[in-house]
Amino acid sequence: MATLWQDARYALRMLAKSPMLTVIVVLTLALGIGANTAIFGIVNGLLLRPLPVKSPEQIMVLAGKLEGDTLGIFTLSYPQLVDFRQQGDTFSDVFASRIDLGGLSFGGKANQFVYCYVTGNYFSTLGVQPALGRLFLPSEGEVGRKDPFIVLGYSYWQKRFGGDPSVVGKQALVNGQEATIIGVAPKGFQGTNFALDFDGYVPLNMMSEEDAAWNDRKSAALVVMGRLKPSVSLRQAQSSVNVIAERLAEQYPATDKGVTVRVIPERLARPQPFANNIVPFIAGIFLALAALVLLLACMNVVNILLVRATMRQRELAIRAAMGATRGRLMRQLLTESIVLALFGGVGGLMLGVWASGAIASLLPSSRFPVLLDFSFDWRVFAYAMGAALSTGMLVGLWPALRAGRADVSGVLQGSGRSDTAGVSRHRLRSVLVVAQVGGSLVLLIVAGLFVRSLMRAQRADLGFDPDHVLNVTLDPREVGYEEARTKNFYRDVEARVRALPEVQSASLAFSVPMGTVNDGSSIYIEGHTLAPDQRPPVVIYNHVDAPYFDTMRIPLLRGRAFRENDDEKAPLVAIVNQTMAHQFWPNEDPIGKRFSVKSATGPFVEIVGLTGNGKYVFIGWDKEPYFYVPLAQNYMAYRTLQVRTSVLPETLITQIQSEVRALDPNMPVSDVQTMRQSLSGGNGFFIFQIGAILAAAMGIVGLTLAVVGVYGVVSFSASQRTHEIGIRMALGADRRDILRLMLRQGLVLVVGGVVAGALLAWALTRSMATLLVGVSPTDALTFVTATLLLGGIGLWACYVPARRAMNLDPMVALRYE
Fold first, then answer.
1. Full-model pTM
2. CB within 8 A of 13, min separation 6: which ones?
3. Tens of pLDDT, residues 795-804
4. In terms of C-beta density within 10 A (0-12 exposed, 13-18 middle, 19 or more buried), how is residue 484 classed?
5. 274-304 b/e (C-beta count within 10 Å ≥ 16 → b)
6. Closest CA to 140 of 151, 149, 131, 128
């Protein structure tokens, strides 16, 4: 330890003697470690941070998968929940939840309430203890009884009730139903649904009979989870669940045939356990890119430390002559590099904190209480410090090995020049620069692909006109409206808003394109008989009123739009898009065809119109089947008022809110935003924007590091060849010859790096096809643009030191030592 402390003190003294070099190395490492820390912090917040519950590694998601389903439906029905709870011997318990949005009325005032229906064993299985009052009992929330209780979320309790403990035991209304507030969930617990910080929890048996569908095995609306028994492995649990699923398929072939259930660790099921969940893949891509940035930083630092070791050869030779062993010299240089890396690690942590905060600030606003925690915990600090120590060992190892192999007598008997043997003696530095240029080109190409993908996504044909449209989300259930009163309210709101002079059209819809709420159903085509082992396809759809297609400017290709008289007394009708028509009625006119969302025997819905394809759920999905039904025939309390204006839609927000409050001052008006703002949400352009920003940032950092590396090698080479340049000029070489000589050396490195980087990028980017929209992973324009950009900047990095070399005074160069 005494020797180690001595090495550390000496390292600090040596670094203090070269403050500029120290600052450059620390900043370079801070960039590399900071990029890695920021990306790892995001991945940690998304995938690695466990639930704040007892033994979170035992919590599993039981994700249902229907054979042939492309939408990734993962929820199960209540009867299936009961089956897995009763028959599963690998779980200590199985529980379920379901998200809902409504209103909580307390003390005569209503507020939006995003809550979760849960089974009675939800909290007990998770091992969660209340912050106040009590939580649900395992016997509560089950079918056959009513338990009108509310458990408030901690954040909602603080925000809505100011943390008042006397709220426990008080009565409140949830969507008009009376319930007693019995407790508050603990601080930090936000539920088991990814990124949502629930306002509260209510027992599952508070759902209406229609919503609950207790005995309907087709009504798959519950997110089912379980806790593994301590001695059970994931493989054993999956085998047990497979046996149960096969048994249920035989017992209930009409509903369970073709349904498989996967057991997924909760952290790997984020944001949702889709069959083709690509979030871990995206996380891996960006972690790999960040690691490449750190590798480029390491190459730069190795080059700098090699130069520094070369300049210190005489000092190290003297220390060896005085008795220092080879191991002692190597340890000293390694200590210096580790000290540098630790300083870089501290800087990287600071940079990572700033970058994570900047990324968190870009999260889109939402009506739902979204909470993504990118704050640093012990995992992030351990990762940053591990990266710093590993970097210190990596960048210091080769200079230390070279110092240990140095010829002491040769150095002491030689001249004052450190190294005049020419380029051949600096082959390692040249190889590192080629690798830097190649890695930088890979980063630039990846960044270019993400940027181009964002541009293509923003210019994609959405199937509607998003300009000059304002979205205003309303839900009269929040203030206890029943169905008749809700219909009258929406009719009056539409009439008032349409009367405004700046309004061209107004309509109501259940869901907004690329919004957070959607509806879907199995459909049964009239005249199409399903095989015994075949399940009906699931199609997403929307509930809209008659003016919707005019407001959104969705063109009808055939048939008609909805009419005001398409109400509950009229025959059921629907409008389908081209993909749905081609999928279910190929080479036929879909107008007049019928299908059902209930059963193979009806009631049937008649198709009266055909629209073009569009973007509905996610901006990256293309040509998905979709249909529309009239709101008047399918009652939904939750709706979005969409207003097309002749002026900027933002200017009408206050006016429209006033019209709503003129009808009911207590009616909450939330999620007011333009259609363009809505498209920047999580299902719209947000993912592509974040990907483009992160990739572009790492591309710029990589480009900077590569340019610094090229400049450093050419500049150092020029300084080492000063005497040679003087001789060449004395023998008749002119300045252009010197310029060509120095440029040739640098350009060889740049060209070699560009060729290697282009080949590597061509091989690597092919795996990114699923992350890109409208752009090939080997897009020629992106490759050519990135290559020209890097080549041009690399040429400039070569030219600056080369020009300095050609302007040397020959007499000064000949006297150079």
1. 0.78
2. none
3. 888 888 777 7
4. exposed
5. eeebebeebbebbeebbbbbbbbbbbbbbbb
6. 149
